[in-house]
Amino acid sequence: MTKSELVQKLAEANPHLYQRDVEVIVTAIFDEIATALSRGDRVELRGFGAFSVKRRDARLGRNPRTGDSVKVAEKHVPFFKTGKQLRDRLNHSA
Amino acid sequence: MAGQTVTRAQLTEAVYQEVGLSRNESAELVESVIAEISGALARGEMVKISSFGSFAVRQKGQRVGRNPKTGQEVPISPRRVLVFRASHALKDQINHALARPGAAGRTGSPKP
To answer: A40 contacts in B (CB within 8 Å)?
Structure first.
């Protein structure tokens, strides 16, 4: 399922809304999550999962082709942990 | 780092600010978005949200695990797990925001 398919499904389920507005809504949700993560906040959606940001310290990496060591700067990576309910759904019911 | 937790309430507020829906309807839409995505994943479908990331279901085979407390070996049954891969756009946004000194402030996002 892509974002546009998601928008389409939601638009079908909400005939009182313009598809354009549904698109705006879906975008607003993901933008809000992205903005929260950019502040270093966690986003917790019970039953679905939680997004967080993990810090990766600066390290000395290696160019696998040449073997040269290269400095890799500290960075922050987004991380998602699946919620219990969704995890169970993936494994029990269809 | 700010270290606060954003929940459905804030997502609802974001939707509420966007189009002329009531808070109740906004909350319902947030719920529907989560439900649609969960449903697709439960069916084993991959969900791709452009400029955000993708969720995929991966099948794991049986393997032998260990109870870390007792050291006893226990079989781990085959299962499906969910993996999230953030898009480059999301990774870049987060890194730009958090890399600059003092950028962890709570005012506005530096999105283009």
So the answer is: 1-3, 98, 104
Write down the pTM of the prediction: 0.86
With CB atoms and an 8 Å threshold, state whether B40 touches A21.
Answer: no
pLDDT in tens, chain B (112 residues): 558 999 999 999 999 999 889 999 999 999 999 999 999 999 999 999 999 999 999 999 999 999 999 999 999 999 999 999 999 999 999 999 988 664 444 444 444 4
Burial B81-109 (b: 16+ CB within 10 A, else e): ebebebbeebbebbbbbbeeeeeeeeeeb
Q: Which domains are present in chain A?
A: 3-88 (4.10.520.10)
By the CB < 8 Å criterion, does B37 face chain A?
A: yes
